[in-house]
Amino acid sequence: MSVSAPGQIVILNGAPRAGKSSIVAAIQTSFDGLWMNLGVDRFMAMTPARYQPGIGLRPGGERPDLEPMVLTLYQALYASIAAHSRLGVNVVVDVGHHDAYSRPLGILPRCAGLLEALPALFVGVRCPVEVIMQRRRATGWNADLPPDAPPPQPVLRWQAAVHDPGIYDLEVDTSVLSSAACAALIRQRLIAGPAPAALHHLAAIAIPVGVDNVG
């Protein structure tokens, strides 16, 4: 098959319950052409139980034995994203990147480098922790906590780590915008530009010395 142009890539980065999956659904429903979802939930579903949560490992150093594997799995995910794009297939991805609270693996810079020369828009999906907690309770998580209780530490760690270093082409706040409105902003950016550059800048971040890819 002859491919004249690579497929568009949209990567949504944010904490759990920030609304990324709803934006993915809005993109797949409303954007022209084929958009494949290669996000964290799909990838975790392919991961054997003993290696869970795989790339869904939350910040906090809870499973240091998995951390090197998470780097490899993230690179495999991004290599798949790149392969789809090079075949002309559009890809939307929802992830929660973090390198903090564990040894510095440099996951995001390494993954960004795998998408060099491809049209990849990196979108920060933000949501205040108060709204995150409302959504968690509504879906059965932390339902036993009193309404005035402080958010659990794992939730706070996600909020602190997922947007570090905070280099994006576009940011959306799902506490004030619907998923459809977020998707519309993303579509407008893809159409009107400017060309995405965030992942190029992230790929240039120095990887700590002595941190190797563990296959």
Tell me what the structure shows.
It is a single chain. By secondary structure, this protein is α/β, with parallel strands linked by helices. It has one domain: Rossmann fold, CATH 3.40.50. Helices cover 39% and strands 12% of the residues. It has eight helices and five strands; from the N terminus they run E-H-E-H-H-E-H-E-H-H-E-H-H. The chain has a five-stranded parallel β-sheet with strand order 2-3-1-4-5, sandwiched between helices. Helix 1 packs across helix 7 and helix 3 packs parallel to helix 4. The longest helix has 20 residues. The relative contact order is 0.22.
Question: Could you name the key traits of this structure?
Answer:
Rossmann fold; 215 residues; single chain; five-stranded parallel sheet; 5 strands; alpha/beta
Task: Describe the structure concisely for a colleague.
The protein is α/β, with parallel strands linked by helices and 215 residues long. The mean pLDDT is 88.
Question: What order do the helices and strands come in, and which of them pair?
Answer:
Blueprint: E1 9-13, H1 20-30, E2 35-37, H2 40-45, H3 67-86, E3 90-95, H4 107-113, E4 120-126, H5 129-138, H6 153-161, E5 170-173, H7 179-192, H8 198-203
Parallel strand pairs: 1-3, 1-4, 2-3, 4-5
Helix pairs in contact: 1-7, 3-4
